[in-house]
Inverse folding.
């Protein structure tokens, strides 16, 4: 059994910051890409940032320069530092990971967290 648990969401004023964390636990051999998605009210879930290693990160334009994704591979953790938050950033934020489960046989699983709500409002 492999699971992801997000934390760090909450209410923040415009211009403020939050740091989201996501912890992977269970039977894990290794984790490939780790990704943050968000789903705003009335909208589809959308990818916002991904990381393979510290030299390989990607962001959508909406968050580039304001959000920073990082990971601690030794702890199976991924983080999302969010600065200069705007009301448009209000959403449920989800963690996603590609996880290699030890075998035999070795298996690859895509795992989702349950989400954490971020509300940006004055």
């Amino acid at each position: 059994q492999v699971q992801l648990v997000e934390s760090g969401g909450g209410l923040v004023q415009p211009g403020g910051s939050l740091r989201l964390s996501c912890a992977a636990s269970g039977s894990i051999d290794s984790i490939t890409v780790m990704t943050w998605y968000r789903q705003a009210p009335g909208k589809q879930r959308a990818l916002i940032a991904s990381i393979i290693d510290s030299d390989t990160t990607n962001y959508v334009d909406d968050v580039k320069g304001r959000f920073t994704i990082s990971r601690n591979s030794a702890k199976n953790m991924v983080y999302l530092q969010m600065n200069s938050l705007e009301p448009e950033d209000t959403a449920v934020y989800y963690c996603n990971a590609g996880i290699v489960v030890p075998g035999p046989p070795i298996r690859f699983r895509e795992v989702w967290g349950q989400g954490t709500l971020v509300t940006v409002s004055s």
About this structure: The CA atoms of residues 71 and 78 lie 4 Å apart. The two ends are 40 Å apart (CA to CA). The chain has a mean pLDDT of 96. The chain is about 0% helix and 60% strand.
